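Z., the sequence and structure:
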Amino acid sequence: MVFLSAAANAFNDYMDFETDTINRPNRPLPKEKISKKSAIIATILLFVTGITLSAFLNRDAFIIVSLITVPLMIAYSLWFKGWPLIGNIVVSLILGLAFIFAGVAFDNPWGLIVPALLAFGFTLLRELVKDIADLEGDRSAGLRTFPILAGEEKSATLAVILTIVIGAGALAPYFLGLYGLKFFIILIFGIEFPLVYVLLILVKSPTITNCKRIAQILKACIFAGLLAVYLG
C-alpha cells in the first residue's frame, strides 16, 4: 500500500503540474526540484513494485490491487479528477479500498468495513473542501469540479450536509455495539468536536483560506478515526 500510494501521488503530481504552479507552487515539480520525466519513471516503478508485492499475499488481494485499485488510481488522475463529484467519489473509494485490501490480505474483509466506510466519508468531505480551496487553479486548468460548476455557496452547503451525515454515521458503530467505550471517547474528542468546528466555519465563512484549514483538520480526523478503531 505504501508503494501504491506513493505511485498514485507521484502520478497525480505529474498530471497536476499546471494547476499546482498556481495552487501549490512550493511542491517539488513546480519548483523544478524534480523533473516531470523523473516523476513518471518513479510512478511506473512504484506501481510495478506494489502490484508485484501484492501477488505474494493471496489471489484476492492481488486482484483488488491489479484490477481495481491501480486502474482507479490511474483513471482518477487521467480523467475523473476534473469531473464534478465523480472524481471526489473515486478517490474516496480508493482510500476505502485500502482497508478492504488489508482485510482480504488477512482473510477477514468484513472486519474492516467500518474503517473503510469512515475513510470513504471523510475523504469525500475533504476532497470537496479541497476543491473549494483549489477553485482558482482548477478553473485556470479548465477542470469541471463541483465548486466551479455549482459555485462556492452550493458547494459549502453540500459540505455542511456531508459533515452532519458523517458526524452522525461515525457514532453508529458504537451504538450498534461493534466498538467499545474507548472508540466512543476518542471519536468524540478526535472527530465529533473537530467536525462541529468545521461545520461552524462552513456555515459562517467558507472562504478559500478557511477551506484549506478545514482540509488539514479533516486529515487529522482520519488519524483519530484510525486510533479509535484500533483501541475500540
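The two ends are 24 Å apart (CA to CA). The chain has two domains: 1-78, 112-232.

Let me know what you think.
H.
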